[in-house]
């Protein structure tokens, strides 16, 4: 197969997706890597000829790579994760609207183009978690204890663009990250960026049936095939606080090979087969339970 990976400069030296690219190449597939932030790309040739079996995006929010992926999708080419689905989770305002409307457990979300508008949020909603609507990798996430503290952050928040604010979900200070690869779910835990004083060794953990169901449902709601979901275990049960397309897949066993196989399978399905959202919810949960015991395969057919 011939694949095109659109990789933003932020991930030029990152293990994900570079390890996947190396794995696919080792299996005999041709992988063309485009750096959207610094490369000149002939769209008429790359998109017009349809010479790639699939396009894969690893980008920061707001990066130019998504536009190129959308261009490929617009002319009927296969993209790993539907381009519209990626847009739906990269914009956290849009993600909150979609998830809430479809019944996913998510905190109440406020959106504001100017930080001073957040002053209208009732005091009873504090403490708040405030972050950029296009943020990623925990960038600029702030825990704001009171309206007074929020007022003191206005200048700092002014350059962040559209903002979202959510009431803080009381939790143990541990973030639960669940990754979906090829319909299998893998749960890991790590320290929360809001609680750096409580270090937690990053590790794989058992996935409960309730969290597994919610994460698989999130894939179906957003139409994602390869994705990650950040979950907090709050007093009212699991709450989704973020959804990421093509995340780091840290702690997933044999991640490069597993992600590589998933990319090839989605490429084989073609443009009408991707975007199913981890296939179906019930099969995904079955595979999630099996993932704890099934060893990784080491070979790959071409």
TrEMBL record:
It holds the Pfam family RimK. GO terms for molecular function: ligase activity. Residues 96-272 form the ATP-grasp domain. InterPro entries: ATP-grasp, ATP-grasp_RimK-type, ATP_grasp_subdomain_1, CPAse_ATP-bd. SUPFAM superfamilies: Glutathione synthetase ATP-binding domain-like. The keyword Nucleotidyltransferase does not apply. PANTHER family: BETA-CITRYLGLUTAMATE SYNTHASE B-RELATED, RIBOSOMAL PROTEIN S6 MODIFICATION PROTEIN. This is RimK family alpha-L-glutamate ligase. It comes from Streptomyces milbemycinicus.
């Amino acid at each position: 197969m011939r694949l095109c990976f659109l990789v933003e400069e932020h991930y030029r030296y990152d293990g994900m997706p570079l390890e996947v690219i190396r794995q696919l190449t080792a299996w005999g597939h041709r992988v063309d890597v485009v750096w959207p932030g610094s490369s000149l790309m002939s769209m008429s040739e790359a998109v017009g000829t349809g010479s790639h079996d699939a396009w894969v995006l690893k980008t920061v929010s707001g990066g130019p790579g998504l536009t190129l992926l959308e261009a490929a999708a617009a002319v009927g080419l296969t993209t790993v994760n539907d381009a519209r689905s990626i847009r739906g989770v990269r914009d956290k305002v849009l993600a909150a609207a979609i998830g809430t409307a479809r019944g996913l457990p998510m905190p109440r979300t406020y959106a504001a183009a100017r930080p001073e508008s957040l002053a209208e949020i009732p005091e009873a909603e504090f403490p708040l978690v405030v972050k950029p609507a296009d943020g990623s990798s925990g960038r600029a996430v702030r825990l704001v204890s009171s309206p007074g503290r929020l007022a003191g952050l206005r200048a700092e928040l002014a350059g962040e663009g559209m903002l979202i604010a959510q009431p803080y979900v009381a939790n143990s200070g541990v973030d639960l990250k669940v990754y979906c690869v090829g319909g299998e779910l893998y749960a890991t835990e790590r320290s929360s960026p809001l609680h750096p004083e409580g270090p937690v060794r990053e590790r794989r953990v058992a996935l409960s049936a309730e969290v597994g169901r919610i994460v698989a449902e999130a894939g179906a709601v957003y139409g994602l095939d390869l994705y990650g979901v950040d979950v907090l275990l709050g007093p009212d049960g699991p709450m989704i606080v973020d959804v990421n397309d093509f995340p780091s897949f840290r702690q997933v066993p044999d991640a490069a090979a597993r992600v590589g196989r998933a990319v090839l399978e989605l490429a084989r399905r073609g443009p009408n087969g991707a975007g199913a959202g981890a296939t179906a919810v019930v099969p995904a949960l079955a595979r999630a339970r099996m993932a704890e015991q099934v060893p990784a395969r080491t070979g790959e057919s071409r």
